[in-house]
Write a structure and sequence with these properties.
Elements lengths: L4 E3 L5 E5 L4 H12 L3 E6 L2 H12 L1 H8 L4 E3 L5 E4 L5 H12 L7 E4 L5 E2 L7 H33 L12 E5 L12 H21 L5 E7 L5 H4 L2 E2 L2 H12 L5 H14 L3 E4 L1 H12 L1 H17 L4
Parallel strand pairs: 1-4, 2-3, 2-6, 3-5, 6-8, 7-10, 8-9, 9-11
Helix pairs in contact: 1-2, 1-9, 4-5, 5-6, 8-11, 10-11
The structure holds 1,4-dihydronicotinamide adenine dinucleotide.
The site of 1,4-dihydronicotinamide adenine dinucleotide has 31 residues, from α1, α5 and α7.
Amino acid sequence: MSRPIATNEPAGYAIVTGGGSGIGRALCERLAGGGWAVAVADIDSEAAQATADSLRRLPNAQAAAAPVTATPVAATPVAVALDVGDPVQWRRLIANLQARWPRLDLLINNAGVLAGGPLADCPAESLQRVVRTNLLGAMYGARAAAAWLMESSAARGANPGPAGGPRPGVINVASIFAAVAPPNFAAYSASKAGLVAFSESLRGELAPNGLNVTVGLPGAVDTGLYRHAEFAHAGIARAAARFVERAELTPQAVADGLLRAAGRGELYAVLGRRARWYARLKRWLPAATARRVAAQARREIDAPEA
Ligand code: NAI
């Protein structure tokens, strides 16, 4: 059997925030497996390092398994401690990567946190943390990376980037809660709805530079998001736990769905059967859907402990 010929140039260069866990980690694995150089950025530096270490073991395994004749070799993955809500840290990260990488092809704003509870019971700090991480974090990231993404796009010229991979640009990870916002998740849902509007605006801004913007709206995935969430009371925590028990998506399925949508240049990637159903209902019957979602969420929150 002929061995694949490895090329020294990575397929692309990507930053993935929240890459230390869950969906972000799966995105890093898929990209590195496809020969991309990846910067794993996470506020949890140990988690970022653990992902980067696991990626280092991937390229050879991929090269041996892949039935292709030319496999790009991923550059050494970089683990970076980054609080996405701090614009100074973003500037430092971009400057550090510019010293290592010839270009930047993709920014994935995936880092996110969850908090739930009746609005009056949510500490202001908790609301700020959610909006700062989920919405401002993505804005700061895109703002810091935009000039380099545009320069890289101009340097690539007519070359659209790696065949079969995501198009160069930005992927933002929102949530189905951006479309159907249940009670007691006001800050989280608002941050994700804001992220969708931000993505729509950014897409128009970056398109003339040959860059794509895709926003993901996944349904429930069983990840650390729920274990690290702040819940104002036990009923909300129980409702969130039941939501996760019904998770129909794996982090890998979300990563594949996002990268596929970005490969096709799609703006929205609604992922999961239930999420697609709710997104459709919301489009057809917005007020009735909001009422139905609210009633269902209230029933789950009021349900006694099993
Ligand atoms: P996760 O908790 O497993 O991963 C989130 C990662 O973000 C963690 O590694 C965490 O350390 C990192 N992070 C948190 N704050 C940060 C900050 N300020 N700066 C940098 N990194 C930070 O959660 P998951 O589920 O993988 O979440 C990824 C994204 O997917 C989030 O934006 C989340 O809102 C979104 N999402 C998750 C769904 C789910 O059901 N798990 C459903 C829909 C969307």
